[in-house]
Design the sequence.
């Protein structure tokens, strides 16, 4: 089974134990650009998951004892090949998930290579100093935990997948990866890259399929040692119940309804431009500050400037270098977004920008949308839309801004725009979020801890935190005497 996507040949079978494996059942990958089917893939389920976990457990016996230096060399080889194939990976993922081709070329795919390089290098410097307790030497070590099950979403599938795959492999775990059913194709290309890099059979496995089948079977499998998932809260609940039966440790990065707080003393142009950036990737970004909280004395000026700039956003085919945002990922997701907007309209809340499908483009293109002063507790203000839909409210005092920012069940990220450094530090400390940006957005470093509070997730990954998760951290105590010379 093969598909040609934008001139790139892709094997659409699973990758298990270093071999391509087919299934009797199939599913289609449909491009959001024009809703055309672009590939037919093997659809895995319990049997394929069981086979992949078995292969990963077999490979773990050797991989866990492979030296850190050798594991790092494998990861660097993978990074080298990714860098040589950035264009192929970029055009395939753009066709598959509808994100901007220019972003894939310049940022996303180079970041995939960086994921492997960073964790390879971090592994070699991973250390915890010994410490003394009444003359006894205490030594902390990082032991690979076993098979890591990784399930990631469709909005940046290869980058988000390798952000977990790379540290798991570096830690000495083997991996079973279930790519997103709405954008699965670059995972198959990664399997080819791992083979070209010489990664031993069974160390990295890919099982394609639907979440309710392959994903559910992976989460419930008794042979996995770690479960990392990025996606929605309802799916996370199902995974947690399944993994909980086997007491498998979890790392969840879930949704957000993040505040974007604008104080009147901010750099106005910077604030407006950064707020416009919350429409990035057609609003399909978990970190986006979708609740704009603007100080009341700046409100009218901000709204006017925001709308003027938003109307200049160019929407269209993401392969066009001049386009700013592309389509939504799928017809069901498009209809979900429109459902939020139409229910808000029915409740008496009228958007001042957008508010429906882009009728000029048709298909899955949804207009950038802004609601002013949505009703307190309303669905559009409370729940994650995951589309180009923002809400704007105003506040009078700093304490009111903080209270509004924290009036959510989520706690993934926040943005604070202010010219007062002391205020920035106070508000940052008071806001309940795993990540707070001050006068910036989307500045990320792989050394930092990443994760959310509340319904935005469980745990942290990044830097040493990733190794804390994928490893069994061991403390060994050595007495000062009793040793034979």
Sequence:
């Amino acid at each position: 089974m093969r598909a040609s996507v934008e001139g790139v040949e892709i094997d659409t079978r699973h990758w298990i134990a270093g071999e391509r494996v087919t299934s009797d059942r199939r599913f289609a990958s449909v491009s959001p650009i024009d809703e055309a089917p672009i590939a037919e893939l093997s659809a895995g389920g319990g049997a394929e998951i069981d086979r992949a976990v078995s292969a990963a457990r077999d490979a773990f016996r050797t991989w866990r004892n492979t030296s850190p230096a050798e594991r790092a060399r494998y990861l660097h080889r993978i990074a080298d090949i990714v860098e040589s194939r950035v264009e192929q990976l970029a055009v395939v993922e753009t066709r598959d998930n509808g994100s901007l081709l220019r972003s894939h070329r310049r940022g996303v795919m180079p970041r995939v290579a960086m994921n492997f390089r960073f964790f390879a290098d971090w592994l070699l410097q991973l250390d915890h100093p010994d410490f003394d307790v009444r003359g006894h030497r205490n030594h902390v070590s990082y032991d690979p935990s076993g098979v890591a099950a990784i399930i990631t979403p469709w909005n940046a599938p290869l980058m988000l997948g390798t952000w977990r795959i790379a540290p798991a492999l570096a830690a000495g775990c083997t991996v079973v990866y279930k790519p997103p059913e709405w954008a699965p194709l670059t995972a198959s290309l990664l399997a080819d890259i791992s083979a070209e890099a010489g990664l031993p059979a069974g160390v990295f496995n890919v099982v394609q399929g639907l979440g309710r089948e392959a994903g559910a079977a992976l989460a419930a499998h008794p042979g996995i040692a770690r479960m990392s998932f990025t996606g929605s809260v309802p799916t996370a609940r199902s995974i947690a119940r399944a993994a909980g039966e086997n007491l498998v440790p979890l790392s969840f990065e879930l949704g957000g309804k993040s505040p974007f707080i604008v104080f009147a003393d901010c750099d106005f142009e910077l604030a407006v431009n950064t707020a416009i950036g919350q429409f990035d990737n057609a609003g399909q970004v978990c970190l986006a500050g979708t609740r704009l909280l603007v100080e009341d004395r700046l409100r009218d000026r901000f709204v006017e400037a925001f709308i003027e700039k938003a109307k200049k956003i160019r929407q269209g085919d993401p392969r066009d270098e001049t386009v700013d945002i592309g389509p939504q990922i799928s017809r069901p997701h498009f209809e979900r977004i429109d459902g939020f907007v139409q229910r808000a309209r029915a409740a008496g809340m009228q958007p001042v920008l957008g508010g429906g499908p882009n009728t000029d483009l048709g298909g899955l293109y949804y207009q950038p949308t802004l609601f002013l002063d949505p009703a307190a507790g309303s669905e559009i203000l409370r729940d994650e839309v995951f589309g180009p839909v923002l809400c704007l409210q105003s506040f009078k005092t700093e304490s009111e801004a903080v209270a509004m920012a924290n009036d959510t069940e989520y706690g993934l990220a926040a943005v604070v725009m202010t010219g007062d450094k002391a205020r920035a530090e106070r508000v940052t400390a008071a806001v309940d979020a795993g990540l707070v940006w001050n006068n910036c957005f989307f500045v990320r470093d792989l050394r930092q801890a990443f994760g959310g509070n509340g319904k935005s997730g469980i745990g942290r990954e990044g830097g040493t935190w990733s190794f804390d998760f994928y490893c069994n951290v061991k403390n060994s105590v050595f007495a000062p005497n009793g040793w034979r010379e």
